[in-house]
Amino acid sequence: MCSGVPGCGLRGAGALIFKAVRDGRPYPDHGFSTRDWAMIPPRQIRLDTLVTTKRQLELDALLADDSTFYGDLFPHAVQWKGELFLEDGLHRALRAALQQRNVIHVRVLDLDSLMPTA
């Protein structure tokens, strides 16, 4: 349905939450570890510029108070061919949207800079 379709995403109160919803990662494996991600400073990103890489939500994860207890506080996104793909943190991003926030802090790995295409 929405897989990779521009402008198609989860909607709330008549407004677009995500730019698009995909199933899977279209970019090459980057091999970044948790420690590598921690070296990237978070920056503010609008939710409606993110393309999700997961189509399934787990309600228990969405509602859990301690969902980031063992992980990074900040979602992870990968910039690839000019698009921002939300690799990790879908539930955190959706919680922000449910709290009427349209901007979140995200660690962004810029593969466009690291792997320039010919």
Question: How is this structure best described in words?
Answer:
InterPro entries: VapB-like_prob. This is Transcription regulator of the Arc/MetJ class. Pfam families: VapB. It comes from Klenkia taihuensis. The protein has 118 residues and is an alpha/beta fold. The protein has a single domain, classed as Alpha-Beta Complex (Conserved hypothetical protein from pyrococcus furiosus pfu- 392566-001, ParB domain). 19% of the residues lie in helices and 27% in strands. The chain has 4 helices and 8 strands; from the N terminus they run βββαββαββαβα. The chain has a 6-stranded mixed β-sheet. The protein has a two-stranded antiparallel ribbon with strand order 1-2. The longest helix is centred in the last third of the chain and has 9 residues. The N terminus is likely disordered.
